Amino acid sequence: MTLSLEFLLATGIGWVTACGILLLLRGRSFPVVLGLTMIGYAVNVFIFAMGRIWTGAPPILGTGAPAFADPLPQALVLTAIVIGFATTGFVIELALRNRHDGGSDHVDGLSDDEQRRREFPHGDAPGQAGEGGR
Amino acid sequence: MSGALLPIIVLLPLLAGTLLTAWAAGDESPARRRLTAAVAGAVAGAAFLLLMSLAPTALNGPLLLWQAEWVPGIGLNLGFRLDALAWMFASLITGIGLLVILYAAFYLHEDDPVRRFFPALMLFMAAMLGIVLSDNLLLLVVFWELTSISSFLLIGYWGRLEESRKGARMALAVTGGGGLALLGGVVLLGQIAGTYELSAMVAQASMIQAHPLYPLALVLVLLGCFTKSAQFPFHFWLPQAMAAPTPVSAYLHSATMVKAGLFLLLRLDEVIGGTPLFEGLVASAGLVTMVFAAGVALFKHDLKGLLAYSTVSHLGLVTFLIGLASPLATVAAVFHILNHAAFKAALFMSAGIVDHETGTRDMRKLGGLMTLMPVVGTLTLLASAAMAGLPPFNGFISKEMMLHEALYAPNNGLWGDFGWLIPILATLGGLFSAAYSLRLVHDTFFGAPATELPNPHPHEPPWGMKAPVLLLVGVCIAVGLLPMTIAGPLVLAVSTAVLGEAPPTFSLALWHGFNVPLLMSAIAVAGGVVLYAGVMRGRWLHHAPAGYVQAKALFWWLNDRLFEAAGRFTHLVESRSLQSYAAWMVGSVIVVATWALVSPLGDAPVAGPRETIAATPMAVAVWLLVIGAATAVVLLQHQRVVAVVMAGAVGLVASLTFLALSAPDLAMTQISVDVVSTVLLLMGLALLPQFARAESAPWRRWRDGVLAVAGGGGIAWITWLVLTRDFSSISWYFIENSVPKGGGTNMVNVILVDFRGYDTWGEITVLGIAGVGVLALLDGLRANRPRSDMTVDPSGRAWSFAEPPLMLRQVARLVLPLALVVTAYIFWRGHGLPGGGFIAGLITAVALVVQYMARGQGWAEGVLHAGGGTRYTRWIGSGLLIASLTGIGAFVLGRPYLTSAHANPVLPLLGEAPLATAAIFDLGVYMTVVGATMLMLSALGAASKEPPRARAAGGAA
Amino acid sequence: MSMLDHLPVLVVLLPALTAVALLFIGDGSAGEHGGHGHHRLLWARRLSVASVALFGVLAALMVQRVAGGDILVYRVGEWPAPFGIALVVDRLGALMVALTAAVALPVLLYASGGWDSHGRHFHPMFQFQLMGLAGAFVTGDLFNLFVFFEVLLIASYVLMLHGQGRERFKAGLHYVVLNLVASALFLIGVALLYAMTGTLNLADLAIKVPQLQGSEAAIAQAGGLVLLVVFGFKAALMPLAVWLPGTYAASSAPVAALFAIMTKVGVYALLRVHGVVFGGVGDAPGAAEPWILPLALITCAVGVMGALAARTLARLVAWVTVASVGTVLVGIGLFTPAAWGAALYYLVNSTLVVAGLFLLGEVVASQRGEAADHLEPGPAVGQPVMLGLAMLLAAASAAGLPPLPGFIGKAMLLEAAAVHPWMGWVFAVVLVAGLLTIVGLARAGSILFWHVREDLPACTMSGGSARLQGAVALLLALTVAMSVFAGPVQRYTAAAAEQLGDRAAYGRAVLGEGAQTTRPYRFDAAPAVEAPR
Predict the structure, then answer these.
(1) Cα gap B110→B29, rounded to integer Å
(2) CA C144 to chain centre
(3) Which one of B526, B593, C58, C245 is least enclosed by Cβ atoms within 10 Å?
(4) What DSSP character marks residue B194?
(5) What is the tally of structural domains in chain C?
(6) Element (H or E) spanning C87, and its range?
(7) What pTM, to 2 d.p., does this model score?
(8) Which range marks the domain in which residue A100 is found?
(9) Is the dihedral of CA A26, A29, A33, A34 positive or negative?
(10) CA B473, CA C529: separation in Å to the nearest integer?
């Protein structure tokens, strides 16, 4: 079968979702927020795709276009985007507030050592592994 | 008519009793205390008199019934009945209640608040009356549990004492739990019979007993009865409940509540009785309890402890008789209930007197009180004789009948070849009870005078305390001497009520000539004396350890294990880790969705027939871009700035997708939202550590990896399944009506502001709430920032960033007006072409953001505190208000919310302008968006430091 | 249209406009302590309370209108269903709105006793929360349901964090993140249903879903089950229930009390989607039936265990909430009208009781000095008798002891289960759970009120403000009323359940007689329309 837009779209959504989930399950609030953002992107495109996909058919009347993409899912996505924007904005600031009052940016408010102990009860932690500068 | 008296008899103590006593207690002054007792007595007396007035009907029929609706839907009605059985118990409850109240009035110490005593006692009396007078079984369960609650309060009366608390909790757990079982059983019976009214249920007895659910129902009901009547192995709560004040023990735990189980057995005898299962279980439980408890009683050093176990034993005796199920056994059961109520209440009261006078109930300390309290001593002696079953007292007669039945009643199947054990065990029980009765009297009133008493000078109590005892002992003797005259008619009537027909003629008498039962009871008495003498040799009994396994201890052991287990279990389940909660949620979705797709069809669905669109190289490139960017976010998540930019790229691809696939509005919206949220994230970074370690254990990475792949794969699969299928939709309607009815050619916008404007209204509300919420959330955050002269916070994280260069600031100044013009244009064309209030709002916000970046924090705080810190809150408010009022405007024309109107007037300069109320609505959207976005940004900005230029640039990209 | 014809939208508009007005009034955080700011707060309180009272009146009117069996259909923007958004109020919807009002008023009175000044914008957020709840209960459109879920959620985020504090922020982060995931799932579920049926109107979906076959049915089921996860999470159905105790216990008492209704939103949505939309016969319907009952029984058990393990009253109540939701869902999971009626009755009662317990818990705690609401011996409370009685009342109802409605509800549930194949499990779990709840609450009560440390001075009645106790009393009075008038209430809930079962009537009321609402959506389907010049 030839490579189709549908296939690219499906796999693209899937991949972004997968990455989003992976980030969502991290222990620090920042990747979690990133994960939520990514899942948000994926879901928006997903809703849009539920109206099937159309090329060169914007849902604008009177352009003489031969057809119109299903406008309803597009409207739903718009609403979803806005709501996603609002909630993401909120959660970002909550994460900051939490980090500041809790003194740690771990989602369970664990200190680095507590976190380390939870993950590596036997103390076989990778020293500075994966530490990245700026 | 007189049926209406029944609810009144219950309501008297239930309402009048509780409320009046609570009121009367007042300030607990002596006068008030007397008044309270008087009120309680009056209520009990009134109820008693009402019952007496009903005696003729009750004893000679007809059956009194009274009905009122409560919850007819579930068969729970206020159905009351009065027959001889109910009447006997009700009279016991009110009569003995009267005596107990009189006794308690003298018994309670002046710093024992009556406020907490008498109302609870009244509640209990009402509940008991309710049980015995109920015709509706569900109603009976209601009152049943009420007795559990009220006894909980009464046992816990001295709640500061450990013993009382434990006793109360144990009693509630056991009897309350039994009550729940009873509820289960009753519901089953009701469902089988199709009614909860006893009077109707009796007719269905055979059908019920044939039903497959009958055994379960029976066991559940028996659980209720046995727990309440302290039958082995549920007996242990009763002695523990002796922590209650003595009047309570006398009333609840010997005369009335513990008899509720027996009552229910008798009451339901016609419905569930008569089967081998019933008789086997009941008779065995009763017999075992009788012997076992009597044996234990002998070894109890506490007066009330001994009486408690003796009570258990006598309850067992009655249960045993009910189980034997011969008519005469029933007669004996009824008769013994009466007798036991009389002598046991008397004994409890005298035990209370001893306690009250000497300050102890420990028989090892007591002794020789006869000389100090001759009257009490004598009364106790007589009552104990009745308990031991000596002639000429009432106890003797009923015990004789019991032995007789044990001997001759048709042996029930359960014991099979061991039927011969029954009479022997019965005799043994009698022997023990003789022994402990002897001990009770001898240890307390005879033998060496007590030396170390808490109150060294015990003396005769006031008559108020003795009178009830005297009365009851009088009854014991009178019934003993003239049984037929005094008790005969009642016993006959009650037995008839229980059996449903008159029992064979019987004669209650002391003397039936020399016969085996007489011999058995002679053996019992003599043996009892010998046994007591034996164990008392060298006061051995007084040092005897309670060496057997105590069910009580077992209960608390189980109780503690239960709480421990719960603790461990909860700790296990409630991980308090967001990661595991999120993993559970993702996992659940994957499981159920897969189950849906695979299981019902056996084979998974495959791609549909819809023809697909061939991918252009450009599309493939974009695809590769998004795959790469998403992967990069994951791999570079620890370099947070890069990660943010990469995430922004993913968003960019999303908008490109929209653009390519005929969704210009989405593209515009997505891109502008993308910019703003990227900026938000970057500003957020200013408050977060710039890097983080890799900190996930391998197992967690594996789990997460699996979840991620499964989740992503799943959604990809479903998307594919959907995209390859044609579909039907309601969208044709929008195509046909956007222009004629919606007044706009941009269908998406028309849907947003008109067809589904209600969604948009909710959506901007969310945005507004978020804006205001952030304000509330970050309220006072600045206080937590490191001192401004610090460049590094305590945990070594960098804090200071470069100043934005002049150039950027200059550009920013230009951007704003430009952006506003664009905004106006976008807004205006929204209804016709891609655009609209939301996008316009975001563009304005972006422009303002650029300002923010250029001018920095001082400006942000300026924004935040503009107009007394409420400017943008007011923007949000105004936006929502405008949108809402636009919708409400339609009310005036008698149209529903958000009904739109539109026209195309020709305006100077602008030419023809599509004007729609929707446009005003859109204005509300615009204002809310600007307000909310500005609040989010400025609140965060005010809390953070100067934003780094590098990141700003990254955000704009 | 007379004003009353707008009832369905009025219950949403009233709190919304009140909230906006409150935004303009502001909370005077400028000078919270006295003076100008305090003045504003007083006005905010008055307006807020008055508005909620009116909200209650509207709710009552609505109940009275639908009690007869009518279904109120309100077409927003006058667009015909299913193309526009229709608000649909049946007995269930009206009941839920009324319940919301019944919880909201006491809680608001309680919060006005001081909590509302512990942070910014409490009153507007409270009103927005009501707006979201009402909106979710009256809407007849699946996507609109999502929108109002978001309204009530984002308001709840702010409320949950009200008063701030480290614990609250931590629990809040969990709560918000999990809810964001749930929202994403909600969207996926809705989109899938649209993709298969081409409609969003619940009544229309209830017609279209049963018509699906084969793969289409399977995909729709997937969508439905995704929604099951979402609603199960909101309603605290295992394994998605354990987030709740931490969150509720960390919230301020009035907020936790208000949240008592939040779990019920999940139950409500579950009933709408899996009771009605997936309720017919066909390939797709019945998607959730194998899941709900077992999970509900587990939830019940877990909740009770948690209650036994709790070391503070707040956590005890929070776990009792889980257990009660479990009991409600057992009723839902039996999938018979009788069981649904029982579940609804139990739902109403448990919501009131739990809310009352949360408030009462704080009053008690405030009278126990250092010991606060820790289940350990402490100083004697200021008003042992009154608070003790209140606690007994609430606890007895929570544990299902008569004569309180908790008992009646359980009795109804058992009756409904007696004919069900799972009868044994239901009886065992419900009865044992009841017993263990009794054990746990008896222990808690005896410690709080009886186990007094003599060495400590009895506490003052600091928590004894008439307003606070009045609020508690109001809630308890409502539960007592629930049992005195159990007959009528039970009739209503039973009727509501029956009405849910009658999908055809629902469809007729919303869509009119069998109009074909969707058309194949293809390239040729689009008529060329002249652009306005």
Answers:
(1) 9
(2) 18
(3) B526
(4) T
(5) 1
(6) strand C86-89
(7) 0.91
(8) 5-55+68-123
(9) negative
(10) 105
Geometric angle at alpha carbon B56, from B50 and B57, rounded to 5°: 85
What is the C-alpha separation between C292 and C296, in angstroms, rounded?
Answer: 6
Q: Is residue C104 part of a domain?
A: no
Query: Using CB atoms, which residue from B716, B752, B777 is nearest to A13?
Result: B716
In a domain, A34, yes or no: yes
Please tell me the total number of residues recorded for chain B in this structure.
957
Determine phi and psi for B79, rounding to 5 degrees.
-105, 120
Residue A53 contacts B where some CB pair is shorter than 8 Å: yes
* Cross-chain Cβ contact B615/A57 below 8 Å: no
How far apart are the C-alpha atoms of C18 and C21, rounded to whole Å? 5
User: Is the sign of the CA dihedral B351, B352, B356, B359 positive or negative?
Assistant: positive
Within 8 A of C183 by CB-CB distance, chain A residues are: 83, 87
DSSP element (H, E) containing B80 = strand B76-82
DSSP state of B251: I
Q: Tell which B residues from 622 to 661 touch A, by Cβ distance under 8 Å.
A: 623, 626-627, 630-631, 633-634, 636-641, 643-644, 647, 650-651, 653-654, 657-658, 660-661
Taking the CA of residue C160 and the nearest CA in chain A, the distance in Å comes to 12
Examine residue A13 and state whether it is found in any structural domain, yes or no: yes
CA distance linking residue B837 with residue B669, whole number of Å: 11
Domain that holds residue C299: 288-502
For residue A24, list chain C residues with Cβ-Cβ distance below 8 A: 177, 181
Q: How far is CA B635 from CA A18, B580, B631, B646, in A?
A: 13, 22, 6, 11
Residues near C290 by Cβ (< 8 Å), separated by ≥ 6? Answer: none
For the record, the structure tokens of A83 come out as 């709501």
Q: Does A131 map to a domain?
A: no
CB atoms inside a 10 Å sphere around CB B371: 10
What is the ipTM metric for this complex?
A: 0.92
B912 touches chain A (CB under 8 A): no
C209 is a domain residue: no
Half-sphere exposure of B138 (CA within 13 A, CB side): 27
| Structural domain count of chain A | 1
Q: Note whether residue C99 is domain-resident.
A: no
Q: Chain A contact for B707, CB < 8 A? A: yes
Contact assignment for C228 to B876 by CB distance below 8 Å: no
In a domain, A60, yes or no: no
How does pLDDT run across C361-381, given as a tens digit for each residue? 988 888 887 788 888 888 888
> pLDDT for B225-275, tens place per residue?
999 998 888 888 888 888 888 888 888 887 788 899 999 999 998 898 888
Cβ contacts of C15 within 8 Å, gap of 6 or more: C51, C52, C55, C127, C128, C130, C131, C134
- Say how far apart CA B128 and CA B142 lie, in whole Å: 11
Asked if A66 has any chain B CB less than 8 Å from its own CB, the reply is: no
Among B residues 247-276, those touching chain A with beta carbons less than 8 Å apart: none
Confidence of residue B279 (pLDDT cuts 50, 70, 90): confident
Tell whether C230 is covered by a domain: no
| CATH number, domain containing residue A114 | 1.10.287.3510
Compute the nearest-CA separation of B909 from chain A (Å). 23
As a whole number of angstroms, the distance between CA C197 and CA B726 comes to 11
In this structure, the strands spanning C519-520 and B906-907 are unpaired
Of A24, A47, A102, the CB nearest to C181: A24
Query: CB-based contact (8 Å) between B530 and chain A?
Result: no
pLDDT tens for residues C112-170? 888 888 878 899 999 999 999 999 999 999 999 999 999 999 999 999 988 878 888 88
**Distance, CA of B662 to chain centre:** 56
C246 in contact with chain A, both atoms CB, cutoff 8 A: no
What is the CB neighbour count within 10 angstroms for residue B848?
Answer: 22
